[in-house]
Amino acid sequence: xxxxxxxxxxxxxxxxxxxxxxxxxxxxxxxxxxxxxxxxxxxxxxxxxxxxxxxxxxxxxxxxxxxxxxxxxxxxxxxxxxxxxxxxxxxxxxxxxxxxxxxxxxxxxxxxxxxxxxxxxxxxxxxxxxxxxxxxxxxxxxxxxxxxxxxxxxxxxxxxxxxxxxxxxxxxxxxxxxxxxxxxxxxxxxxxxxxxxxxxxxxxxxxxxxxxxxxxxxxxxxxxxxxxxxxxxxxxxxxxxxxxxxxxxxxxxxxxxxxxxxxxxxxxxxxxxxxxxxxxxxxxxxxxxxxxxxxxxxxxxxxxxxxxxxxxxxxxxxxxxxxxxxxxxxxxxxxxxxxxxxxxxxxxxxxxxxxxxxxxxxxxxxxxxxxxxxxxxxxxxxxxxxxxxxxxxxxxxxxxxxxxxxxxxxx
Amino acid sequence: xxxxxxxxxxxxxxxxxxxxxxxxxxxxxxxxxxxxxxxxxxxxxxxxxxxxxxxxxxxxxxxxxxxxxxxxxxxxxxxxxxxxxxxxxxxxxxxxxxxxxxxxxxxxxxxxxxxxxxxxxxxxxxxxxxxxxxxxxxxxxxxxxxxxxxxxxxxxxxxxxxxxxxxxxxxxxxxxxxxxxxxxxxxxxxxxxxxxxxxxxxxxxxxxxxxxxxxxxxxxxxxxxxxxxxxxxxxxxxxxxxxxxxxxxxxxxxxxxxxxxxxxxxxxxxxxxxxxxxxxxxxxxxx
Lengths: 411, 287
Fold this sequence. Notes:
The structure holds 2 protein chains of 2 kinds. Chain A is an alpha/beta fold. Chain A has helices at 6-23, 76-84, 100-106, 141-155, 171-174, 177-188, 203-213, 230-242, 268-276, 291-302, 308-316, 343-354, 359-368, 392-400, and strands at residues 53-55, 62-64, 68-69, 89-91, 118-123, 128-129, 134-135, 160-165, 192-199, 218-222, 246-250, 283-284. Chain A has 2 domains: 30-316, TIM Barrel (Alpha-Beta Barrel); 343-409, no CATH class. In chain A, helix 4 packs parallel to helix 6 and helix 12 (343-354) packs antiparallel against helix 13. By secondary structure, chain B is α+β, with helices and mostly antiparallel strands. Chain B is 23% helix and 32% strand. Chain B has helices at 4-11, 43-46, 50-55, 84-94, 136-145, 209-222, 266-277, and strands at 24-25, 28-37, 58-67, 73-81, 107-111, 114-119, 122-129, 172-174, 187-194, 197-205, 233-240, 244-251, 254-260. Chains A and B meet through helix 1, helix 2 and helix 10 of A and helix 1, strand 2, helix 2 and helix 3 of B.
């Protein structure tokens, strides 16, 4: 017996998509979120029930606008169902599930026509300093060669379509000479059709470095409506796409929930469509682990335009109260504060204490600041209006109490 | 005076960041301050792989390095999960079937330059950089494990899978979305090969008997079986349109069964699995 029942699965999924497409109402052009420049409108599909595809930059590969981030999936039947339903680009990495993710794909892909799918993997070079984005001493291009050989063996393939240098966040990392040579060698040897770089931090710098490096064909980048700097990312994506690079968006699900407590889920179809409204994004790789989630992604694959209803869903809950704990350091708060408090640093301390739960770091930062004994208590009202919607006064009053906790109690 | 916030901090659940890694181990020295990551920031450290950790209720991570006098470096990552079962779960997802067990009493696997082990709610990964003698890894692992609280025993459900035909050290645990169904959570599965047939036995623990029956009802709906009251215990063979034939049994808070290729011998194994599962003590929360 063949494992799984993907023929049945594919027809069930296709039926689901047809239903979704049939139920869609005509919509007016989508409006961008506040502050976002108008983007070129993506033409509506002639046949709404067909999977929508875009060209992955100069690679020339026609990819579905919705692809599959395989990283969490351990069920081969889910991948089979996705492939059969038209999600033909699969994104994995050498390190996902310590290699088990590639091995799982290796149970599926060798039995399929090689041109029926696109597989992308990533290699993380172990000397990468995640904090600085720079490579340390002992960085060897051979590590890429060796790990790629292992990845190909796991996948049961003789080449991957895109080989990414994984998790880059600095120009110097992207342009590391030895690593670029190794990547180029992989391409020359036919083990990778195209070369890419992935980034989830300092994305604009990485996108521009990828253009500068000339070697890279594709960039896999974080891109979602909740990024503080999404306009900057959008601009850099535009520059990279104009230079001919293929753009793949990740983290399009924007954290999945609006709130830390995970009680308010973000509408997945809306946020995925938000990333795809940018015509310079050629595909996105949401991860999914259930067949219901696959159905949602297939609905977007067949109808990727951001609708006014989607837009409203993304606006309505973008409440400052749910802004999270991360101060973006805009410094707009400094001038209004009558006590001249170092508010960005205090917000950072608050983040250390509450988000990182690193009480020692929070206290160290507080003690290094020249603070009055009872900051905020001398003002009847606070004139500071935080750009991210933080209740600055409340947070300062909360965190400064940590100054009085004896060090040995800071567990 | 300690205020309410500070008091809350003091009463907070200990985190991986609070794990005091030994400063020195057998000639190795902790290099710099360990860095901690939370569910909000783990993406900065493990990129897309972070989702897998979050699925197993990742709490926080302490990342550190040890260096020896000859500058050889070992990277140590201590992942703290909600409980021992969740820590074992992510370990089981990353463990390669048939991996070499690490020396000593810890549950872990070892290769020349990597070692991973679980201890209570902690999943710990060690990686030897720049070459160096791999013998250091077990020593470091033991020293680090000694600082970690919690049980050292594997989840009880794993001992319930019959040995006949079972692939060694290949069990996997899934916190959610087992078989691609959102209604199936907290599952353990073990691969078998008998007479050329490959199949998996699985066990799913509901929060209580009512939830287990609800899972059965949802599974019946997926298979388009007629609606029916689900009895306290029972068995059914159903056709999951996405995973093929599934042999399903249930009693109390447990569901168990087999999926993938049929085999004339798997029924007996499934029944044996069930007999063992129902003997596992009921947690207080499920009574």
